[in-house]
Amino acid sequence: MSERLFGIHGAALELRSHRMGMLTSNIANAATPGYQARDIDFSAALEARTNGAGRDGAIASATRYRVPTMPSLDGNTVELANEQMAFAENAVAYSATLTFLTGRVNTITRALKGE
What we know:
Helix content: 55-70%
Strand content: 5-15%
Number of strands: 2
Number of domains: 1
Number of helices: 5
Shape: elongated
Order of helices and strands: HHEHHEH
Distance between the termini: 23 Å
Strand order of the largest sheet: 1-2
Radius of gyration: 17 Å
């Protein structure tokens, strides 16, 4: 029922939330030797999710390891500036999706109240 009410926005919010956690983990491990930065190909994950894959399946199929432009000597692939930029972009998209869903819920609530 929620897919009929919210379309792909519910799945998008869930995927963006998971991506935010992944980017946060990358940032937290910027100084960890050998840490491999990961990210989610959001478009691929959302497409998998809308084609019937579960949340974990969609995330697993769209998770990619980052290829650094300047590899570090300790094997860590986190490039802090890139991770911070990706985090900020994802946070804006998350906020926009959440705003849309909030508006949709408010509209449904008003309709049910007969306003």
